[in-house]
Amino acid sequence: GGSRDTRLYIWEKSGWTLKASRGIGRWPIESVWADSGYIYGASSDSFIYVWNRSDLSFRTKLAQPDQRPGPGGIMVAVTADADRVYGGSGDFDDTLYAWKRSDFSVLTAFKAGADDINALSSFGGLLHVANADGTIRIYDAATLLPVRALSQATGGMTSVAPATDYLYAGNSNGSVYAWERRGYSLLTRLRAGEEGVLWVWADDELILAASQDGSVYVWQAPDLLKNLGYPGRPTPTPSGGRTRFAPTPSGRSGSL
């Protein structure tokens, strides 16, 4: 977990006890990604920090070309696959960066939209980029050549969550959009409250959306997709629809 108090927190999944925390200075950690070898933290100081997963020791920090720490070039998103580490920046830099995972050398940097990059996700050989310009841009992970750009008329895309057969994205207009990954036809638009969606996560069973209204909205993916005429995975269960989890009875304890 990355925190506004500039620290990375690690918990044991077996008992949810705090295992360790690591500080990086005075800048917040905007997002975190982990794979089998490393933990990555995208920081507001425009670096991506890397820790060894085995012993949580500091490994390195990834810099942008012509690094100029401070406002501009703020790293807000990070993800990785077997070969590369990807970072997305916001403010007025709005650039997608790629480094080799083997030696962390810079591979390339280019604009991936007309506004801030808000989230990244690498899945199935594709890199998905959520941009504040209202687009989800999809690139071939091996070549970083563009594959598709999905867009909506209103609001900026705040997050992106690919699953086996479907792609989901959160929007600042309070919606979660769902596309079929084969052909990328828009399936539906889900409402997650009246305020912006901050983050979306999905697998073949559940779709979760964290909202600025202080709630997490949950859909059962198989039932939802079956009702739309799509098979979904796994076999649908009897219950379906949207569930709303609020941290307090009023649901207004602050933004998640």
Unreliable runs: 232-240, 248-256
Structural class: mainly beta
DSSP helical segment count = 1
Overall average residue pLDDT? 84
- Percent helix: under 10%
Q: Describe the main β-sheet briefly.
A: 4 strands, antiparallel
Global morphology: globular
Cα distance, first to last residue? 13 Å
**Structure summary, number of beta strands:** 22
* Alpha-carbon Rg, integer: 18 Å
- Sheet-strand content, in percent, reads over 45%
- Give the strand order of the largest sheet, numbering strands 1, 2, ... along the chain: 3-4-5-6
H/E series: EEEEEEEEEEEEEEEEEEEEEHE
Structure overview:
It is built from one helix and 22 strands. It is mostly beta strands. A hairpin with a 5-residue loop joins strand 8 and strand 9 (95-100).
List the helices and strands and how they pair.
Blueprint lengths: L6 E5 L6 E6 L5 E6 L3 E6 L4 E5 L5 E5 L12 E6 L3 E6 L5 E6 L5 E6 L5 E7 L2 E6 L3 E6 L5 E6 L5 E6 L3 E6 L3 E6 L5 E6 L5 E6 L3 E6 L4 E5 H7 L14 E4 L11
Antiparallel strand pairs: 1-2, 3-4, 4-5, 5-6, 7-8, 8-9, 9-10, 11-12, 12-13, 13-14, 15-16, 16-17, 17-18, 19-20, 20-21, 21-22
Write a compact overview of the structure shown:
This protein has 256 residues and is mostly beta strands.
Describe the structure using short key phrases.
256 residues, mainly beta, 4-stranded antiparallel beta sheet, 1 helix, globular, disordered C terminus
